[in-house]
Amino acid sequence: MLIDTYGRVATDLRVSLTDRCNLRCTYCMPEEGLRWLAKPDLLTDDEIVRLIRIAVTELGVTEVRFTGGEPLLRPGLVGIVERCAALEPRPRMSLTTNGIGLKRTATALKAAGLDRVNVSLDTLRPDVFKTLTRRDRHQDVLDGMAAAREAGLTPVKVNAVLMPGLNEDEAPDLLAWAIEQGYELRFIEQMPLDAQHGWKRDGMITAGDILESLRTRFDLAPEGAGERGSAPAERWTVDGGPHTVGVIASVTRPFCRACDRTRLTADGQVRTCLFATEETDLRAALRSDAGDEAVAELWRKAMWGKKAGSGLDDPGFLQPDRPMSAIGG
Ligand code: SAM
Ligand code: SF4
User: Fold this and answer.
1) Are 101 and 144 in contact (CB under 8 A)?
2) Mean pLDDT for all residues in the chain
3) Domain 2-327 in CATH: superfamily?
4) pTM of the model
5) Cβ 96 under 6 angstroms from ligand 1
6) 124: nearest Cα among 178, 70, 72
7) Is residue 273 annotated as involved in ligand binding?
8) Which of 67, 151, 296, 309 could form a Cys-Cys staple with 328, CB 3.0–4.6 A?
9) CA distance 192 to 312
10) 20-56 per-position pLDDT tens digit
11) Residue with the nearest Cα to atom 11 of ligand 1?
């Protein structure tokens, strides 16, 4: 098991398949992009599958989420999913994507064994999308989501980040649209993980703001008496159900005490937390011919050292060197 000194057990593995992206969301990346990892530094498809096999067979991981950067840019994605689907025990597998290219790949991903997708969409307005992501691809994202729904990659969850002065007024419209389309909407509070260090606590749209805005149009009741377990999203039933909406309040209502995550970057580093400032190098172990048990032991040791919380509220909080796009949200 991947257990830490606070008794938390990590069963949910986030695997970043690339740090590259075809969008430039303002809360994530600068306009000019970033200095991408060099190809030899990236884990190969075989290395990724081996690490996931070790996680699933030796370390108790039951959920695998592929992310990035933009994971659909990884040429070997379908093959990686297919090989992971053949593992015993078979992990549940999902993908967090910006949706561009999903129209083309949804059927193949489903056939390979992917269970579902989370697609990121912050706005229903193409012009705002262009400002937020610095690319004119709104329709591609909508088409990708619809293709995922048709392919049975369900429930299709939609991740939305609200930014002051851009889309902060869109929460009710996004919810009405998601319900109509049959998608599950979750709002994510903006976190200090952008490469440009542009995040400001004062200016951010909080979970409280989002709920207040939603309540101007919908009746919301906490689902399961407000218990969210290890799920980061607090969920609310909308107008008596059955539809729900989630809010992931990593900043104002952190869920660190129930965290069940472990993360692997595209260059083979284990991270115990989005906000961790230390990493454990599994790629070096793989490339020096370490056996499965030695790699598993390194991973266990890394997780044993997981800190109690993100440290966001500590006076000395330091943003990690790796931005969100290189960690995998
Ligand atoms: N490119 C894919 C996508 O956008 O879905 C996967 C990677 S992206 C880093 C994963 C999620 O992180 C997205 O839903 C995105 O909106 C979210 N994200 C990125 N930067 C963020 C930030 N600074 N605060 C909160 N969420 C962020
Ligand atoms: Fe790319 Fe996702 Fe970051 Fe947007 S949030 S720039 S889509 S990695």
Assistant:
1) yes
2) 94
3) Aldolase class I (3.20.20.70)
4) 0.96
5) yes
6) 178
7) yes
8) 67
9) 9
10) 999 999 999 999 999 999 999 999 999 999 999 999 9
11) 329
Q: Is 16 in the pocket of ligand 1 (CB under 6 A)?
A: no
Residue 247 belongs to what H/E stretch? strand 244-248
Please provide the DSSP assignment of 266-293 as one string.
Answer: TTSEEESSTT-S--EEHHHHHHTT--HH
Residue-level pLDDT at 229: 60
Contact 47, 286 (CB under 8 A): yes
Sorted by where each begins, the domain ranges of the chain are 2-327
pLDDT digits (tens, 9 = 90+) for 75-92: 999 999 999 999 999 999
Q: Cβ < 6 Å from ligand 2: which residues?
A: 21, 23-25, 28-29, 68-70, 98, 120, 325
Q: What are phi and psi of 108, to 5 degrees?
A: -65, -35
Strand partners, 242: none
Please report where in the chains the tokens 């689902």 appear, as a residue: 223
Please name which of 118, 193, 202 lies closest in space to residue 160, comparing C-alpha atoms: 118
Q: Which two tokens stand for residue 54?
A: 């070790």
The partner residues of 247 in beta bridges, in order of sequence, read 187, 234
Residue 75 three-state SS? coil
Token pair in block for residue 239: 């107008």
pLDDT in tens, 184-220: 999 999 998 888 888 888 889 999 999 999 999 999 9
Q: Distance from the CA of 94 to the center of ligand 1, in angstroms? A: 15
Nearest-CA neighbor of 64 among 288, 311, 261, 294? 261
